[in-house]
Amino acid sequence: MNSSSIKRITGVDEVGRGPLAGPVVAAAVILDPDKPIAGLADSKSISEKKRILLDEQIRSSALAWAIGRAEVEEIDQINILQASLLAMRRAVLSLRPQADHALVDGNRCPDLPCSCEAIIKGDQSVEVISAASIIAKVYRDNEMVEMDNLYPGYGFLSHKGYPTKLHMESLKELGVTPIHRRSFGPVKKVLAEIDKAI
Question: Which of 39, 51, 67, 97 is most buried, with most CB under 10 Å away?
């Protein structure tokens, strides 16, 4: 596909590869060139308050955006890399209108019906990928806040499922929830200790 035929370019990024709990979430965004958004940057480098404001702006002014996800069971079944690629594929396939070309953060492209280019640290250098990183992170963070209500005591509100000291201590004390990734080392270890104790 030559550059003159590329019309709709989507940025794609995922969040949630490192946590011990919750889904991996990807977003795909097609920005409107007539509605530029100031301040787009890697979601991890900006404050939560700014992320939320940008998230609203992206959703309201983009030509299209979509969320894709892979659940904990899928992560445990196919591994986190494959689950991340699956979530990205689902996000891109959900775009209406569809994209002609995808720019993906990282070094691997998911299996897509359009042309695709992987860009290492793309979320820091390509605005449309930054936009995807922002809406993916806000979406997943909101879900982990809900999980904090469902599974109190684990601290999901603060760490969003990442392996912090608080999370590790509560995992040992309270056990493994249905949203924990059983194929991940620290969770496996807790399950093995529970088995030993029985």
Answer: 51
Judge if pTM exceeds 0.85: yes
For the chain, the domains span 3-143
Q: Under 8 Å CB-to-CB from 198, ≥6 apart: which residues?
A: none
What crossing angle do the helices spanning 48-61 and 127-150 adopt, rounded to 10°?
Answer: 120
Within 8 A by CB and 6+ apart from 35, the residues are 61, 62
Q: What is the pLDDT of residues 141-183, one digit of tens each?
A: 999 999 999 999 999 999 999 999 999 999 999 999 999 999 9
CATH number of 3-143: 3.30.420.10
- How many CA atoms lie within 13 Å of 59's alpha carbon, on the beta-carbon side? 14
